[in-house]
Design goal:
Layout (H helix, E strand, L loop, with lengths): L2 H32 L3 H17 L3 H17 L3 H18 L5 H17 L7 H12 L9 H14 L2 H8 L5 H15 L5 H14 L3 H14 L13 H15 L2 H10 L1 H4 L3 H15 L50
Helix pairs in contact: 1-2, 2-3, 2-4, 3-4, 4-6, 5-7, 7-8, 9-10, 9-11, 10-11, 10-15, 12-13
């Protein structure tokens, strides 16, 4: 027998032995789950994870962990299930993006389903959400896959965590849905005098994140269907809504002179929330090629939601800001276009 034949025979024997070992662990795993020995089952899932990833059998590992996490969630073993979910994300990261888009996308709704299965009291759930979003950036941009954000937003919304839900809805690139959500939030949590603030806050954030399409869809949905807006078409009664209307049209022209004039005209209303000026500056950089000025201004994005987008804009504004104050009430804007 040649050296090559000996090596091939040895490799085949090793693989066969490894397969039998995995088969025995799988059999024990099934028995442990059936007998309610969940800790033992959890440890065996981890053992198989290490074996599969060492052999680069990523697809087998992903299927095993997904099935295991679902079974442990069904048995109300959420801590163990969350650990398997984190191992699943780790496996996706090790495998890397695949050339088949359908295979990549498959794990976005699956991760969303696993996150939905974990209650808010599960300690590792927030870590899982952040890890899943970070992984999804390899599929879709720097902020993560919009479908994953939508699924996460639905989870938070169902739980009544409006602030977290709003954050993810703004990143789901579905402006019509975002507009409807903002209408509901405005009606349930806002005053009549704040009806425009909910819209302006969201649209400026979307524009700052270079998502103009969603920003326009949000604007259209909100202005068309919000029952507390005094008018549903231009010119609007609320000055800041008119500001947005003109802003979209100036972005088309890329007129920096017009943008500066618009800011000056609506400056009193923009000062109703100190973050609006910060976002306007960012928009000037993104759409009008303005150079940002270094400012040591007051805390950003007041209001009940806080500046949840600050970490997404690091690099533009290095300040770490946190403001829990309520939105400022209406100020005198008689000198503005309305």
């Amino acid at each position: 027998m040649t050296t090559a034949e000996i090596a091939s025979s040895s490799s085949s024997t090793s693989n066969s032995t490894g397969q039998r070992g995995v088969g025995r662990v799988l059999a024990k795993l099934s028995h442990s789950l059936a007998g309610g020995e969940f800790y033992e089952a959890h440890m065996m899932y981890r053992t198989l994870y290490f074996r599969y990833t060492a052999q680069k059998r990523y697809q087998d590992c992903l299927d095993l962990l997904f099935d295991g996490a679902q079974k442990l969630i069904a048995k109300e073993q959420e801590g163990s299930a969350a650990d398997l979910c984190l191992l699943l994300v780790d496996t996706l990261e090790k495998m890397g993006p695949q050339p088949e888009d359908t295979d990549n996308f498959l794990w976005v709704p699956r991760l969303g389903a696993l996150i939905r299965g974990l209650t808010s009291g599960t300690v590792e759930r927030e870590t899982l959400i952040q890890r899943a979003i970070k992984w999804s950036t390899s599929l879709h941009g720097q902020y993560g896959h919009p479908v994953l954000h939508k699924l996460i937003a639905h989870v938070f919304w169902t739980e009544g965590n409006v602030e977290a839900a709003r954050h993810h809805y703004l990143l789901c690139q579905d402006g019509s849905l975002c507009g409807r959500v903002l209408i509901e939030i405005s009606q349930s949590r806002g005053f009549q005098s704040e009806v425009d603030l909910f819209l302006v806050q969201a649209v400026l954030q979307q524009l700052s994140l270079k998502d103009r399409k969603s920003a326009e869809e949000t604007f259209t949905e909100y202005t068309r269907y919000h029952p507390k807006l005094l008018k549903h078409e231009f010119p609007y009664q609320e000055p800041l809504v008119n500001f947005l209307y003109f802003l979209f049209r100036l972005i088309d022209t890329k007129s920096v002179t017009g943008f500066r004039a618009l800011q000056k005209l609506y400056d009193p209303s923009l000062k109703r929330d100190t973050s609006f000026l910060k976002y306007a500056t960012k928009i000037g950089v993104v759409y009008f090629d303005e150079q940002p000025e270094t400012q040591a201004g007051p805390p950003g994005l007041g209001g009940m939601f806080g500046d949840i987008f600050s970490r997404l804009m690091q690099g533009f504004d290095e300040e770490e800001e946190e403001d829990q104050s309520t939105p400022a009430r209406s100020q005198n804007v008689n000198n503005e276009l309305d």
